Amino acid sequence: xxxxxxxxxxxxxxxxxxxxxxxxxxxxxxxxxxxxxxxxxxxxxxxxxxxxxxxxxxxxxxxxxxxxxxxxxxxxxxxxxxxxxxxxxxxxxxxxxxxxxxxxxxxxxxxxxxxxxxxxxxxxxxxxxxxxxxxxxxxxxxxxxxxxxxxxxxxxxxxxxxxxxxxxxxxxxxxxxxxxxxxxxxxxxxxxxxxxxxxxxxxxxxxxxxxxxxxxxxxxxxxxxxxxxxxxxxxxxxxxxxxxxxxxxxxxxxxxxxxxxxxxxxxxxxxxxxxxxxxxxxxxxxxxxxxxxxxxxxxxxxxxxxxxxxxxxxxxxxxxxxxxxxxxxxxxxxxxxxxxxxxxxxxxxxxxxxxxxxxxxxxxxxxxxxxxxxxxxxxxxxxxxxxxxxxxxxxxxxxxxxxxxxxxxxxxxxxxxxxxxxxxxxxxxxxxxxxxxxxxxxxxxxxxxxxxxxxxxxxxxxxxxxxxxxxxxxxxxxxxxxxxxxxxxxxxxxxxxxxxxxxxxxxxxxxxxxxxxxxxxxxxxxxxxxxxxxxxxxxxxxxxxxxxxxxxxxxxxxxxxxxxxxxxxxx
Length: 571
Description:
Blueprint: H1 5-15, E1 22-27, E2 33-40, E3 43-50, E4 57-61, H2 73-82, E5 86-91, E6 98-106, E7 112-120, E8 127-131, E9 137-140, H3 175-180, H4 189-196, H5 202-215, H6 222-238, E10 244-247, E11 253-257, E12 269-272, H7 276-325, H8 328-340, E13 351-355, E14 364-368, H9 375-418, H10 423-435, E15 455-458, E16 464-467, H11 471-481, E17 487-491, E18 499-502, H12 510-522, E19 532-538, E20 542-543, E21 554-555, E22 559-563
Antiparallel strand pairs: 1-2, 2-3, 3-4, 5-6, 6-7, 7-8, 8-9, 10-11, 10-12, 13-14, 15-16, 16-18, 17-18, 17-19, 19-22, 20-21
């Protein structure tokens, strides 16, 4: 785990700048997260604590986390005890992955009391526990199982720290003696360090061994080299940190530490940060935001994907039926020929061979008959089949067009979901689907005062450029905000955002046209393509047909420009 005891030690030192702050606000964005807004003169910051498995940590954050409409029970309890409390101390027992925040608060009687918020950041056992002055637990995010737990984490139980491992503190122990106990065989050093020293993760131990291998030839003996390599880490642990994140070739971050990381060589890229909090924000934000959005959108992605597949299957069947309707003319011809030759057809015949006067050669044509009915009735039946086929063709033409539009709509919804950056944007799409009758509405409909939060940019001439992030926002900026002489942009025949340049009818420069077209391409299903065609036209030529689905419009008198979406630079 990269967030080891040593990393927490440096983080706690960084967080001590918040001592003497008062808690202004408390949030709980999810079951495993807490956010405190801390204030004092000349200082305002958010303190973020999470006990998510594989991502447990504590640090300052610049992110604004989305919060549930109704705060969870643990959040309300923390607010009860810690609202307006003053942070008086922050400590870490040795190099354990436990951060202890001490608050001076006022109880219900008006007396000052000291409460401890203990953050146990230990793998899948991570927890946040509120403890009173008597050392008893007020409550915790996670309760222990009475029968199987090694220690009791329940309200009113006496709090005990997690069991300490039998390891030495590298800041206090005799490093030379530790090194002399270690075998210098390749691959053994990191394992030996991990089993002997507290606060060191496998990553840090591997870095010590890597440093040892690179400098051992400069020393008279291996133990002196190992001691020097170990001291480079301890110097960072006791002095200034060097916050470092390593990235894969595709730009995704996969490891970090408070020391420089050289063990991966040239196979990775590195980025340094000014603080450990900035590092943690950068490392976890994108990954956790994507995970949170995927979790929130999982059900509607599955629903829309299934609806699209069902509609495509239905369209294929209807197209086959429509193809069959193209032969309807033969039914009319059969009826006409039978009607003209009734005198020569015997009742009870299974077929009739008559001259086809629709053919220049007047060749004989064999017409199947139902022997149970008269020739006249057979002729009448063929006329009915003709009319039925004609009516079916008209209905199927309309239905297949509706199917095509629905598939386009489902594509636009999936495209919007994949480009969502916040859970609230997923909520807007969920509301759109509920309004269309695709899902049941489980939450209260958004109030009219809460306007869609579309993207907004400014062109080189100073014009506002509006970009819808979903179909609801597309309708809003195109049909309500945009004036008839404003310019409207959209990728040709591909699902994507509406883009409106609010120019008031003034001519746009080539640069503004390219900027707006590029935004349209970047916010579309063609965002990873090149030479993307983008249509643009004044809004007065953009119409929304009656009964059309959200985001669906038709337009005319457009021009087309070809652009290549910009790709985000990898770190």
